[in-house]
Amino acid sequence: GSVIGNIGFKVKQSVKYLLQNGLVDLIGSDAHSSRHRAPRMKECAKYLRKKYNEDYCEHLLTAAALYE
């Protein structure tokens, strides 16, 4: 939600700063169900692919990033 702006404009701007400066290692979700606060990871991935390169997007969305 923070990446795609569901939490608010200021949060999205903060996340944008972190992403642009390579300060993010992994993107995840704390969603508890598909009905309440759904993860919306496909929407997040689509946004990341549009704004950043494919390699960075892949890095951010895979568990492999934890082991680098």
Chart the SSEs and their pairings.
Elements: H1 9-20, H2 41-51, H3 54-61
Counting helices, strands and paired strands, the structural category is mainly alpha
Percent strand equals: under 5%
Poorly predicted runs: none
Radius of gyration: 12 Å
**Percent helix among the residues?**
40-55%
The number of helical runs is: 3
Quote the distance from N terminus to C terminus. Answer: 25 Å
Mean pLDDT: 84
Order of helices and strands: HHH
Largest sheet: none
How many beta-strand elements? Answer: 0
Structure description:
- The protein is an all-alpha fold and 68 residues long.
- Helix content is 46%, strand content 0%.
- The protein contains three helices and no strands.
- The longest helix is centred in the N-terminal third of the chain and has 12 residues, at 9-20.
- The radius of gyration is 12 Å and the shape is globular.
- The relative contact order is 0.16.
- The mean pLDDT is 84.
